[in-house]
Design brief:
18% strand, 8 helices, 7-stranded parallel barrel, 196 residues, TIM Barrel, Citrate lyase subunit beta, alpha/beta, Pyrv_kinase-like_dom_sf, metal-binding, lyase, globular
Amino acid sequence: MQCLLVLEPDALPDAASLAALRARAPDLRIHLRIDAAEVPGPALTLAQDGVAAVVAGAGDLARLANRLAVHEAEAGLPDGATRIVALIGSAAGVLGAAGLAGASPRLAGLAWDAEALADDLGIDLDLSGAWPAPLAQARGQVVLAARVAGVPAFETVRRDSASLAGTAEAARLDGFAGIAVRDPAEAALIAAQPPL
């Protein structure tokens, strides 16, 4: 099970901590969360494997890819060096996810954000119970859209998950290639799990 660590620019661990995490989890993918509408140039130098951004469809993804191309040219980086994981966190994003296939060769994965989506839909989210119907549908849409795009789909970690191994197994059975987390400690726990 792959692990995608999505870090906010203002909450990045220091270089030594990231190196230690990489040593424990060599397959870990670390993406910097950015706003798709604006690319913070200096922060992009901190992106490890790419960026993650909430997108509502192919247009958002293509515009972000163009902004990244400009940044790479200005920074002397190879064109296409910065990969994108599209975060699905709105109703528009769920409905537009199928259109992400072919929108940019930078697309490296799709992840869904249950908390953001619940907020967008005005749903009170009980993380200990079953997903409400719209979230369950969105979760399945992400798997299908990722399959069409030929990229991995990443599950959301429930904040009160008692068993990370159980979460990973359920995600695998439902077609997810990995789990997206926001906390380096969660990433370390996933890395410590035996392969499924």
